[in-house]
Amino acid sequence: MAENKENQYSGQLPENEAGPGMRGGMRKEQPSGTGITGCLRQDSAWLDQKLATDRNFDVVTRTIEVGGREAALYFIDGFCKDDLLQKLLQYFMDMKARDMPGDAGQLLKKSLPYIEVDQEREWEKITSSVLSGIFVLLIDGYREAVLIDARSYPARGVEEPEKDKVLRGSKDGFVETVVFNTALIRRRIRDTDLRMEMMSAGQSSKTDIVLCYMDSRVDHDFLEKIKEKIRNIRVDSLTMNQESLAECLVPGRWWNPFPKFKYTERPDTAAAQVLEGNVILLVDNSPSAMVLPTTIFDVVEEADDYYFPPITGTYLRLTRFIISLLTYLMTPTFLLLMDNPHWIPEGFSFILLKEPPNIPLIWQFLILELAIDGLRLAAVNTPNMLSTPLSVMAALVLGEFSVNSGWFSSEVMLYMAFVAIANYTQANYELGYALKFMRMTTLVLTAIFGIWGYAGGLLISVLCMCCNKTLSRRSYLYPLFPLNWKKLKNRLIRRRLPGARQE
Q: What is d(CA 313, CA 302) in angstroms, rounded to the nearest whole number?
């Protein structure tokens, strides 16, 4: 078990390399040094006080006799496997005095029939282990506690993610238990080069964070930078899991809406990113994996492109790029053409408004942008049994009746419906809202300054992407800028797998 003797209450939280939950926490004031004394009565009294066993009903403690010595058990109810604990208790009670080793180390080596065991003397790590669900045994005369990792976290099945739907491929998905998520990646990458490093953050939560990477392919300078950022996190708790961690890793430039992270709930996507040399962050209690570093091409790319032949995958990828671009340009371009109808070729005169609008077009677009988000929020909070009738009602009211009443033009409703639907062609929420903010900015500038406002909106969008940097300080538009034609071609075209072609 990793040990860090420099941790203080106001200092850094320790890095753990032994396993989930077996880590240090904040240093507490102790009456008798930093470690246990070997006197069970004194040690158990101190631990009872720290864990508040008289007030916490789920902190279970029991006094037993092990090999003629008095011992105390500590564990959290609901975290431990009851059948395993029963067998261990039976084993401990059947031990004879002649079978008792002289210390905890010899007990683990010769007399304890279980795999995931450890010994610890520091109080801070003992208390943190108990609170994380580890079974702790204190034996009179032993100056080290016995830690038995017999945890069984409440968890749901690894079914297909609701957000990252699978067209073709594996139907499993990440869950809220970090150990299950690491196992899903291990199942796909059976290589000794794969690394899973455990760290923790949050002074109260001590949230487990796993760094997953290929040791021979990762950028080690970037990896050490990420580790240092995690060690320096001083927040009390990572309440919102990945989002809390993301805000700690990137504290500045909140005004740039383009995402710096790619999130995925699919183990195949995470495994592919690891094999490409990226770093995957898995946070306990979260079913999503963070991909670092992330460019705009990483955000748009999806794993489904590789579950189809190269020509089909290329078509799907280019379609996604084109539709994402159209969601940004459609409404500002229409507004610009309506303000300058003489620019419209005669063959496209049908796009002109059939009737003069009662409300300026810019206000129609802005109102509908807010209305679409309102429908999204309503859909999230609507019970499943009412979702269908409410959807029909919303379609009738906002579709037909709003046009007939004169509030909105039918052309405006058509283009906004396209934008609302096209946003779901790519899975990244952050990118969808980034395009939305840029679209609204361009709309406002176009309404005020005309063609110069339209050009200014385009320039602002390009500058936001150019000024955005990945966590590795690489260009957000790489390999487009700086240009790397070979890698750019691989980003735009779905190529055959390396080594698939046989000479």
A: 10
